[in-house]
Amino acid sequence: MVKGLYTAYTGMIEEMRRMDVMTNNLANASTTGYKKEGTVNQSFDDQLAIKIKDRSEVLRAKRLGDVNLGVKVGETYRDYSQGSFSVTDNPYDLALDGNGFFAIEFRNKNGETSIKYTRDGSFTVDQNGYLMTKDGDYVLNANGARNTAGGQANYVHIDPNQDVTIERNGAVMQNDVQVGQIGLVDFEDYNYLEKYGENLYDAVAGSRITASTAGIEQGCLEMSNVNIVSEMVDMITITRAYEANQKIITTVDETLDKAVNTVGQV
Predict the structure, then answer these.
(1) Strand 220-222 and strand 85-87: pairing?
(2) Confidence at residue 3, expressed as pLDDT on a 0 to 100 scale
(3) What is the per-residue pLDDT for 191?
(4) CA nearest 101: which of 207, 227, 219, 231?
(5) Which whole-number Å values give the CA distances from 141 to 199, 200, 228, 238, in the listed order?
(6) Rounded to an integer, what is the distance from CA 112 to the centroid of its chain?
(7) What are the angstrom distances between the C-alpha of 191 and each of 55, 56, 75, 196?
């Protein structure tokens, strides 16, 4: 094995992975509540190189030292920092100011329900007065969010024929009377959140729900926290790193060609 070829190859694979994540960020730059992702690089463990058939050292092959076989894909992380607000003046558009998530009862294609979490507050109200996402999933009230319980009793219900005011603490007011409470939750450790789709999250085993300190801003939406300019600059960096690894492979290939076809001639 020619170490230079393998090192350049692993570098190209890593840059391809970084580019996939970067393009996904750019594709979701206008997705409400989307949180950008990033990657980390990790080197392979050092390996001990030895000289084959050299027994100059007693009872062992001669050591040449440690070598590293290049880079490998580390973990993918998510940046949960808050995005900017866009004012829509739609009473059912809600943005979270601070750490926390809306809880929704998600229904899959098989009709199975589960509790998901999101920062996307672009809601609507159906003909029966239930607050829903644009995909038709019910928004949970405080009891449902806190106890991760779905069902009609845990939905946010209002009178669709009356004006609605949603206070910063999530209280749903109509005619100066509180008719509901939007459920907000937070998590002790975001490493126990798993992405589901574009802007939904699953709480995996080991997650611990805590009270959210976020405030609700009615008539606003939280936009993606993707900075398009920064992503484009990083994309150029990735492209140049990929091309550098390509040149290494070309150089090594040319060196091997000369070694075999020129130097190796008798």
Answers:
(1) antiparallel
(2) 73
(3) 92
(4) 207
(5) 20, 17, 35, 44
(6) 24
(7) 50, 51, 12, 14
Q: Which two tokens stand for residue 203?
A: 């709480």
Given a contact cutoff of 8 angstroms between Cβ atoms, the answer to whether 12 and 41 are in contact is no
Question: Is residue 133 scored above 90 in pLDDT?
Answer: yes
Degrees to nearest 5, angle at CA 116 with 204 and 74: 45
Q: What is the pLDDT of residues 220-244, one digit of tens each?
A: 999 999 999 999 999 999 999 999 9
Between CA 18 and CA 24 the distance in angstroms is: 10
**Cα 232 to the center of its chain, rounded Å:** 18
Which residue do the tokens 């997705």 mark?
31
- Torsion, CA 133, CA 137, CA 142, CA 144, rounded to 10: -170
* DSSP H or E segment with residue 21: helix 3-27
Query: Within 10 A of 40 (CB to CB), how many other CB atoms are there?
Result: 10
